[in-house]
Amino acid sequence: MKRFTCCLIVMLALAATVAAQDSWNIQLASSLTSFWQKSEDLVVVDQYAFVAAGESGLHIVNISDPTRPFEVGSLDLPGYSRSLVVVGDYAYIAAFSAGLRIVDVSDPFTPSEVAHVEMPELVEGVAVSGNYAYVANYRQGLRILDVSDPTEPVQAGFWPLPNIELRNIVVENGYAYLAAEGNGFYIFDISDLTNVTMVYYLNLYHEIWDIAVEDDYLYVVGGRTWSDEGVFIAYDIIDRSNPIEISRVNFNYRQFDIYFDYNMAYVSGDGVHLFDVSDPSNPIEVSHNTRSSAYGTAAVGNSVYVADYFDGLIVYDYAAPTLPVQVGRCGGLWYSECAAIMEDVVYMIDRRSGLYALDVSDPYSLNSLSFYEAATAYHGIAIKNQLVFTANDSELLVFDASDPLDLTPIGFCSGSTSYFEYGEAILLSGDHLFYQSYDGFAILDVADPTSPFEVSWTDLYYTRDFDVSNDYLYAVDTYLGLHVYDVSNPSELIEVTTFSVPGSLFNSVALQGSYAYLADLHAGLRILDVSDPTSPVELNLIEFDFPPSQLEIDGDYLYCSSGNIGLHILSLADPVHPFEIGYHDLTEAGERFCVADGFAFMPDESMFYIFDCNEALPVEERDVTLVPSEFALSAPYPNPFNAATTIAVTLPAAGVLNVAVFNPLGQRVTVVTNTRVAAGVHRYTLDGSALASGTYFVRATVPGQMEESRKVVLVK
């Protein structure tokens, strides 16, 4: 496993965008979505990577720091964005069934479509040379468009290739080279657009996915669907009418993309194969990076950018070509499933990719801090004393989270069974950790977090959730009900009783005082008196329009997620008769969420939500009068920024606050505020529209009490 930092996509959605009937007393503070639906291709231009991402369209990522790529703009497009080229201020995107889309990317923060050309069948590849765009039109042929005015493309030529499944196209020195699925490749002389002629065709009996030309050599990659056989073939094309095969490399998997960087070729499919092709007749494989499901590749210096089909944009350092190292990532949130909060940081597990640390000091401005990549799927999370506990398919992992920017594993435990592979939840109680798996639960001693060890294992099939109170463990079995264990001796558990109801489906349990709250997917919310844990008594059953799925208690409030319904809050002022005080509907609501200070933090597969629930809570219960303990100038966000960035200043006492912006020469360029303010957190917007691109310094001062500066970068 490699540790690296990444930046996820942040999308703010205020409650004003939510219809009234969809929420009551709860508003969506912010949300994070970094799931790119099938990254297919990418192009790097200057400090930006442009990614064609299937159903989710175009994504633009700032890669000025390859270790911290962050998305600056995106555009949903019709169809399926298969491939793209970027020329000048425009991106030309082959959008499958939606034809060719032309997007103005002169401002990467706000890309906008300026034209599109519908075509019969599908568009899978596009190339631009001079004032013309050349389109590989699947089962139709080669289309040539005049794009001298990209906002008004006009067809300038067409060569029919009926029923030929064209995949991609390259234009070089007056020739067009087309890759065809199941039909090899074609070469056209396009030096005279009034007389386009086909000069060569070769049937390779392979699916040819991509094609590239370097000097007088043609390279193709592809494979066979039915056998998973892949190929990388080089041709001498000094005579375009008679290409001569000079080398061939076979693979056990189809290859989808080829990218050249001087004498190095990056072949993508089952990861990235790096070849030295200084002698095209004898390509030498330098390395095979198996980490990625790579569909597109680009290289700048030692940084190699990969469009990963599942994980968005991944950045590798190829300073040592034989040992590439993953250093950055953007996109690819695939299956977020649980979260825990410590101070102002939420730690979130993505089952496919790993552990995220998210800055939620301002819940309305979510920011990613760091990421630790998972070698295998992660399950469950718990936090204690600057430590984060989680598990992958084979072991428990303990992370030092004292610095959220640098998550460091410090302890491991493999366990005596395979329970880690099917993990669901983690719970801490004193020096013991309870790990709930599909078929039971384990207890581990974590007194020494660098050396945790298993204490006991208890079989309990269909375990869904558990909670601990006063030396008793309450474990939920979906079909058999609530099991209560005496865990005063963790190495020797004693089951003291079981509570079950025929026909019920129990999914979660939460404890408060002498009460246990059970989520019953078939019946509703069951409330038990567990003052005597050996003899629980049901006090009430509350039927709701929603089936409660996961339960969390914070203070006198019960938070319920409810599958495809959303988030609901119940008041426990009367613990036996809770009543609803707020809700927010969602198409999907995640389980394993966490709550703190009136906010709910909810992962949900490809999304992560923060809900402000304070409106549902009585005023006297809200933590709104807390006075900060120290002065602070928070990191402006976003940074780098385009049009504007937010500056937050924390004051423990009232004072005259001055916030100003200076250039690197120390010259003040603008004053954001200069006024007396009360104690608390104050937020200001820095409008960069009148400033030139470059580096600036934000300085916050309170005479005699505070003087702090932060660097910001304005990118236009």
Helices and strands in order:
Blueprint: E1 3-4, E2 10-11, E3 23-24, E4 27-32, E5 41-45, E6 48-52, E7 58-62, E8 70-75, E9 83-87, E10 90-94, E11 100-104, E12 112-117, E13 122-129, E14 132-138, E15 141-146, E16 154-160, E17 165-172, E18 175-181, E19 184-189, E20 197-202, E21 207-214, E22 217-224, E23 229-236, E24 244-251, E25 257-261, E26 264-269, E27 271-276, E28 284-289, E29 294-300, E30 303-308, E31 312-317, E32 325-330, E33 336-342, E34 345-350, E35 354-359, E36 367-373, E37 379-384, E38 387-391, E39 396-400, E40 408-413, E41 423-429, E42 432-437, E43 440-445, E44 453-459, E45 463-469, E46 472-477, E47 481-486, E48 494-499, E49 506-512, E50 515-520, E51 524-529, E52 537-542, E53 550-554, E54 557-561, E55 566-571, E56 579-585, E57 594-596, E58 599-604, E59 607-612, E60 632-633, E61 644-651, E62 655-662, E63 668-677, E64 680-687, E65 694-702, E66 706-714
Antiparallel strand pairs: 1-36, 2-4, 3-56, 4-59, 5-6, 6-7, 7-8, 9-10, 10-11, 11-12, 13-14, 14-15, 15-16, 17-18, 18-19, 19-20, 21-22, 22-23, 23-24, 25-26, 26-27, 27-28, 29-30, 30-31, 31-32, 33-34, 34-35, 35-36, 37-38, 38-39, 39-40, 41-42, 42-43, 43-44, 45-46, 46-47, 47-48, 49-50, 50-51, 51-52, ...
Provide key terms for this protein.
single chain; 0% helix; mainly beta; 5-stranded antiparallel sheet; 716 residues
Outline of the structure:
Helix content is 0%, strand content 57%. It is mainly β. The strands form 16 sheets. It has a five-stranded antiparallel beta sheet, with no helix packed on it.
